[in-house]
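@channel sequence for tomorrow's demo:
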Amino acid sequence: MNNNRWSNLIVKQLVQHGVRHFCIAPGSQSTGLVLAVADHPLTIKHVHFDERGLGYFALGIARAQNEPVAIITTSGSAVANLLPAIIEADKGHIPLLILSADRNISLHDCGANQTIDQLSMLTPYVRHQRTLPSVAEEQRDEFVAAAISEAIFQATNQDRGPVHLNIPYKKPLFDESVPHLVDDLPIHMSIQANKPTFDPQQIQSLQERFSGVEKGMILVGEMQELEELEEIFQLAMTLGWPIVSDIHSNLRSLGTSSYHIRYALDALMQGVLGKEYIPDVVLHLGGRIVASPYLQWLKTEEVSTYYHVDKYRESVNPFMLVTHRVLLDPIEFCRLLRQDLPLRSESVFLAKWQELSLNMTERVENFLGRHNQLTEPYLAYMVANQFPEIHHLFLGNSMPVRDMDRLFYPDRPCGKVFGNRGHSGIDGNIATAIGIATALQEPLLAILGDMTCLHDLNSFALLAKSKLPITFVIINNQGGTIFNFLPIAKQSSALGPYFRSDHVFTFEKVAEMFGIDYARVDTPEGVLEELGNQKIIELSLSHDENVDFHEKLQKGLAKSRRKVLAYRL
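structure tokens (generated this afternoon):
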């Protein structure tokens, strides 16, 4: 990658998204961007020596045409001179795209000429901003495509307004020996609903697109919506597409459905998902998902069409998969999309996924039925199969949410599943669980790791005068076991003291200090007996045994697969 290609990728993606007007203030640092605009036949160029006037000029074009207009400046105070126009664009909901060239990060804060903090000065007035990585970081083309798509999306959605991309360049700023033009570009597009509902043309276009796809998949991420989730099943039935759901989607709380695929992550980890399982279109409803291997698999298999539907502006695109975005409540989207669509007859693609789901369910049940000792995976499996219908679930981050995401597939409806996945931290989990139980006034089971509990011990004081039916299960394996599953585990001398933070603490005295009933349990049945009580249940487990059991589970499911295949042959 070089500055020429980097700049042309940016400009060509902007043009691909319908940007035509580029307003340029002369300057050296922005040379690559200016040359890219100059070379592109579809750009309309405007040049003005005063950035303040240029900003208002661009604002006038954007206001009159109601379309995004790009402004290119060099580094330093040039960006500051755009501030009055950007404030006006903010208050007037006018889509301006500020492309500020910057000096490389290594030249900041060392007295180098023409370097200021170009990002924070615009922060209060832009809908979205980011500094792109430098060319030296060798980002893929897809990164540029996704970054530009996100910027356009944020500038033009319902709360439209200015956005800011800060673009650092290292010298030489352009290379005369390298062609400027770039012909092979990835396509990333955005669809947005600027009204509470889609207009009829948008609905019809998507209906025509999806009804012609047999190999489609619905991927359901974290959902703030906890009601009317049946609409997702109804859409799956209409389209004839399988559903893969995240533990925080709350879709699993509805119980079983033939369209809902169980243990898909285990199938992926076992290498079962061959070419016949690859979807042509993915419809991602809601927010992030815990199991990133799904997304990595879709990326590896080069799935070309990926719709993300959510009512929040935040981008959910860590693997640069999203090609279309729809800013709309996912439940409303499902309701609108399936209107007037005929039911699709069951396809070979759907049948393969359903058969896979049945096979994986048989393998998991056979293995864990034979290995029913108290382990973290078995705890997740047991809760799924014996969880009372009126109980709710709160999952701590790190290992508890991963094991539950893998193995929690209840046969009958149960309560809601909660967790703090906003930044996936281990802080504040006890307090959050107590807050949820206070609001619901219904039984809640909170499954937390020992490090998560140590981080928030004083929040148990919130239970001092309460009779809330909240049961805390603390998995105490004397440290952060998740690090045993990461590459740092190979550095055995550093693993325990510096990452896992090995300790010898137990929680009995903690319960006594806060006046909470306590029990140490060493059988699966012991956990179930305590549900619905305000209690701390401590499970003393070994991190080494936990790792060993996960490995046995992997090998056991692989053996089960061979038995199934041998039987069919």
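heads up for whoever presents: The chain is about 40% helix and 15% strand.
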